Amino acid sequence: MKLDESEVESEVENTWCIGCGNFGLLNSVKNAVKKLEDEGIGKDRLLISAGIGCHGKIFDYLNLSGLYSLHGRESVTIQGMKFANPNLKVMAFGGDGDAYGEGLAHLIFAAKRNADITMIIHNNGNYALTTGQKSPTSVQGFKGPSSPEGSVDEPINPLKVLLSSDAGFIARGYPGKMQHLTEVIVEAGDHQGFSLVDVLQPCVTFNDTYEKYNELVEVLDEPAETRKEAVELVEKEERLPIGVLYKEKMPVFNEKVYPEKNPVEDRMDEKERFEAVKKILDEKR
Amino acid sequence: MEDEDVFTYMVGGKAGEGVKKAGTAATDLFLDLGRESFQMNDYQSLIRGGHNFSVVSTSIREVYSHHMEADLIVNLDERSRKIHEEHLAEEGLMFYNLDDSEERDEGLGLPLDEMAKEYSKPDLIKGVAGIAVLAAYTGMDQKDLEDLIEKEYSRGVEENLSFAKEVYKEVEEKIDKTINLEKGKTDSTVLTGNESLSLGAAAGGLDMYIGYPMTPASSILHFFAAHKDDLRVMPIHPENEIAVANMAVGATVPGARVMVGSSGGGLALMEETISLAGMTEAPVLFVLSSRPGPSTGVPTYTEQGDLSFALNQGHGEFPLIVASPGSVKEAFFLSKEMLDLVWKYQTPGIFLTEKHLSESAKTLGLDLDFSDEDGLETKMADEDDDYKRYEKTEDGISALKFPPSKDLIKWNSYEHDELGYTTEDAETVKNMHDKRREKNETLILDLKDMNTVNEFGEGDAVIFTFGSTTLSVREALKFTDIEAKVVQPVFLKPFPIWELERYMDEEVIVVEQNSTGQLAKLLREKCGIKPKTVIRKYDGRPFGPRKLAEKLEGAIE
Questions:
Q1: Which H/E stretch holds residue B206?
Q2: Which of A85, B34, B137, B374 falls 20 to 30 Å from A197 in CA-CA distance?
Q3: pLDDT, mean of residues A258-275
């Protein structure tokens, strides 16, 4: 299938529930991909990955190349693609159970090393695909099949965790404000370095938060100036600011560890390789 | 029969006293004499204190493994002297530290602590004594010793030279005889197994090495980190083994040739991803360097307890390639061959080795002659093809295409159709299973044309072994009259039944370094071979060749 002859959205049957927040997210992603194309980031060099969960189905719904990964591992899979060929633009989709639970360590380290990747997290506060168990971001008292009497633990604040891990770009979006979400995703894609968009995604079947979010979300005009102020923004519970919350440009991982080299594009030929190996062998004499 | 020509040097002391370095310098000293050697480092999982030793066996012929009967033992402390008392060969010299050990009738003592305390690093410098004693005992000129110290102990060289000369003079005066080591004709390189497999992979076009520290595989990561600019292999040390494996799978999508490494515990964490590599058809080479298990086990020692573990990696059914080198030299060629194989078959491979091969150093000559091309080409898609990542083909192998590309290239951990979209369709599920199984059948056809089993020597007795134990067996056979053929399966999965079936009715002896006889079981299950005797060792220490020779005699006669 030729990418330039096909729509961004695939013809695969969409099985998300009617009214799912993922539809708005998918539309925003589609529009963002088109905008990135206009900026010169073609679909030929845009790679995606996804974890496992309702969110992951977006991998099949997009006519984009990449690898449909394991639960929680998409943030690492996508780094592998980026480090192998830094000329690619990469974007991975995760869920809250997936990226903030099973794969949280990976996410923290991706932020800490400033891998040049974009993460889009479908944060719906439950494990929807496995029938609505509590997730890392479920509120205390959340009732699901694994917590029939209500979840006893406090939810984590993933954005606070990531801001504390030196993340250079933290944003929040809401599918109810699709145009705004599109812009946030484009800005995340344009950012050089680790970027993450936490999407407040209502789950109509197990955790319907439309009413709550419609009331609480508030578009932020400008990102916070300091990391400390950004932390204050994400700690707010009475209002939910959406938009780019924090943005700081820093050197990216592959440039720090392997400057000006591209593992798959700047290879030595066989003769050069043999000479390099021989030189080391001679030193071992 | 008994090979009088092997000279064995042993040096022991606390961690932080430069014991391993003394062994390396000794290997260098022997190499200057044109002699072959094998160096085994025995160390504990600690940074200071404890007991470490290094043992180097040398000869004018190739030495396959170290010996535990030493002609010279340099003990930097009393604990070492006590431990190694039983390792002193007849007429060997025991050197000890008079500041830690009582003066004895036998052997030679010097007040090492007293002598060393004049220097800025009194602990570390003691190791230099190890090499000075060896130089004096083997009648080396002081000038040659100075050259060696300058080469091997260049950091703080003035102090090292001064201390070495002091020890050398004392020993020279006090010993009544020196040992003359015959000069050989070796002009070779000294490599550890880990260095060898790393260089082989680099020669074979490795683009990235990803690893998380775990003995005895850590030194592969260190090697690539030290050589990233000259070998042009990107080294990455991520947060854990799960990240290592998944990053590697991701890196294959744009076409990077990538290798990862760990020991058993780390590979256990990677197992979910080995299955992912099987399903997505991601060509990743996993190095598994074993140590005694289960669990944390005995971190810095050796064992072959992970054979079954390696063979049974990953949930679900998919082609998996497992091979294990029987020598430091074979490690070089096998890593390149394994890379070619995993790429041709787009499936994971496990390069199985053990601490004994990974971290022992051996003299070896290497020429980078890969001219007998193995024909293991990666199948690439044509530019104009209507590309399908998982296209059904006769041999089960779909062509690869790497982004940037105008074609849709979808790799998928779910069962998928030819384009890579998720499917639950019954017929497609079955077809994709068939495709992966057909790949395995094609793989077996390829292996049938390749060298999958090594055989050494001729004789009525047949001794089966694998991995680093091959070293011990080959060295042991130098010390017995037994005429035996040694059979070492290099490939363990797919298992080369076609090469081994003919031993079905032979009286077979199996030698392996684990407690349950995993190779013996494999031979029974796959080839119907019923081993007469299984010689096992599982105390974390490699076989001593002379003791193994006695066991072989017992088993055969």
A1: none
A2: A85
A3: 94
